[in-house]
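debug: dumping io for the single-chain case to check the tokenizer round-trip. Nothing else runs in this session.
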Amino acid sequence: VIFATHSDQALEILADPTENERSILGAIPYQKNDTILHTDDSLLPLNRKAWSSWNYYILADQLDKASITYNMNILQSIRAAETFCVSLNMEHKIDGDKVLGRYLYNHPVYMQRSVPAQASHGIISGHNRTHYCGAYWGFGFHEDGVMRWLDISGSLFDHEELYLQRRALSSPLSAAGK
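debug: decoded output
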């Protein structure tokens, strides 16, 4: 069985998780994030020279949730007169007339205990005929999930071609999570 799911979903699906599965998968929790696609550029820095793909906010009333605005024009090389943004957990700051879509996503929450859990992938993956691939084993990007799948599929099927694809994708940019 290959679990291509979030860590919390894998734990929920397992009928009888081992202690290792509980502790390792449980060390990488997920949180719900209200996600809004909009054109309200007031959430970006006042100085346009400071605009970047990822613009973080630390809000006094939401220290427990990530608050971020992605500038999609920069992130996705969109050439448009309007600036398209995606914001997490910032609904109260966004001009409602500029909202294009609302979504709810779950993202991994990395904590101090998550790092050793990520390094322990081999302790649970491949045991009891179960394997785990998901973005949470890396930086949380979709590409991280693909990389883990290439690792798992290469070990399951012993395909040299998959191994070579994995090596080709392991450039300094992918290793840095970009």
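debug: round-trip ok. The chain has a mean pLDDT of 88.
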